[in-house]
Design a protein that fits this description.
Elements: E1 6-11, E2 14-19, H1 30-45, E3 51-56, H2 67-75, E4 109-113, E5 117-118, H3 120-127, E6 130-134, E7 138-140, H4 154-162, H5 164-173, E8 177-178, H6 179-184, E9 190-192, H7 197-211, H8 214-226, H9 232-247, H10 250-260
Parallel strand pairs: 2-3, 3-4, 4-6, 5-7, 6-9
Antiparallel strand pairs: 1-2, 7-8
Helix pairs in contact: 4-5, 8-9
Length: 270
């Protein structure tokens, strides 16, 4: 698939998906939606990619849905429908909807929020497995100021990251908040200066790609996204099953061997 509104690269086992409408602060369109989905599926299936980074070109991450797209919704209600997906991660129905498929990608997805993230742009960042922000990033849910509601699963995602009261504040007020506040409430994992932001995120992604078992990351990602739907006993039984599989894996043998031999790991994901 030739991309028009995103960039896709793979280097040093890191796949980078860049929203590429910098003159519009990477405002989300139907074309971008399809291209991001395709790129995520491509990265998930590519053995040369072990980590995925989602970021934006220019000074913005994603300013939300393009206003031209929003203006057309009222005239064409229901014009765009849920799309059948090919991702797996146990085929949980929760991860098969229009935007909720990130947990079904079998590789860790890092949200690199380089600048403003609003509305649907914020939602896409929340579906990433974890997030880093530049000190130039600004956030807003924006929906209540457009006459909308908590869209596309943000009412499920946001309270799990920041708590119920904070989520209600951010959703109902739709106020803007900066990277420092995002860090203080647990929305992002760290904040880096804009001048070194891309390098810092890339260093983190490369460290994971080079030194961590791909088999372990896939299993852990599935475990953590599954636990909100499990009892404690189910989570323990699930972990026990995964542990037995791990003991039989090549990555487990390599994990012990490289530690004992004091050398760099050579994980295969098998």
């Amino acid at each position: 698939m030739a991309y028009q509104e995103i960039l896709y690269t793979v280097a040093n086992a890191v796949a980078t998906v860049t929203l590429n409408r910098p003159d519009k602060l990477n405002a989300w369109t139907a074309v971008m939606e399809d291209e991001v989905r395709d790129a995520m599926q491509q990265a998930g299936a590519d053995p040369a990619a072990r980590v995925i980074v989602l970021t934006g070109a220019g000074r913005g991450f994603c300013a939300g849905a393009d206003m031209n797209l929003l203006q057309g919704i009222g005239a064409k209600p229901g014009a765009r429908r849920e799309t059948a997906l090919k991702f797996d991660m146990d085929k949980r129905p929760d991860w098969q909807t229009r935007y909720s498929y990130f947990p079904a990608i079998p590789k860790p997805i890092i949200g690199a929020i380089n600048g403003p993230a609003a509305g649907l742009g914020l939602i896409m960042a929340l579906y990433c497995d974890w997030r880093y922000a530049s000190d130039a990033a600004v956030f807003t849910t924006s929906f209540s100021r457009r006459g909308l509601i908590a869209e596309h699963g943000i009412s499920w995602l946001l309270p799990r990251l920041v708590g119920q009261a904070q989520a209600l504040d951010l959703l109902i007020s739709a106020r803007k908040f900066d990277a420092a506040e995002a860090l203080s409430i647990g929305l992002v994992n760290a904040v880096f200066p804009m001048a070194s932001f891309a390098d810092r995120v890339n260093d983190i992604a490369r460290d994971i790609a080079e030194n961590v078992s791909p088999r372990s990351t896939e299993a852990m990602k599935r475990q953590l996204w599954a636990t909100p739907f499990q009892t404690m006993a189910e989570a323990v039984r699930d972990a026990n099953r995964e542990m037995r599989k791990s003991f039989k894996s090549e990555d487990f043998k390599e994990g012990v061997a490289h530690f004992v031999e004091k050398r760099k790991a050579r994980f295969t994901g098998k």
